[in-house]
Amino acid sequence: MTLERPEVDFPGGEPPTTLEITDLRIGDGAEALEGANVTVHYVGVDFESGEEFDASWNRGVPIDFPLKGLIQGWQEGIPGMREGGRRQLVVPPHLAYGPPGSGHRLAGKTLIFVIDLLKVARS
User: Fold this and answer.
1) pLDDT tens for residues 58-78?
2) Which parts of this chain are annotated as the region Disordered (predicted)?
3) Which of 16, 93, 108, 123 has the most CB atoms around it within 10 Å of its CB?
């Protein structure tokens, strides 16, 4: 399967207060379980402005990492995905980088991620 960079639709309205998980494409490969190492491509945008703040697509290579090292929204939102799947996560601040003034440039922001799960490995 050839992947194309996703376009993230600007949702408008009030940001959610809980994690929203939407499967855009169901994969048929190995399932990501809690504590797995994953390889993904992703795009991240600010919920309020719709501005992109990061994307592995811009670097031309996917990233590999253990789920336990990521923001809570990814730790909760990626398990259950299968390789080949694409999922959108809408992550409120308390599951991302914390309240305003927490020291991260994205603190206090609700974030939208579209994640393509390319590979799952046990940690």
Assistant:
1) 999 999 999 998 999 999 999
2) 1-20
3) 93
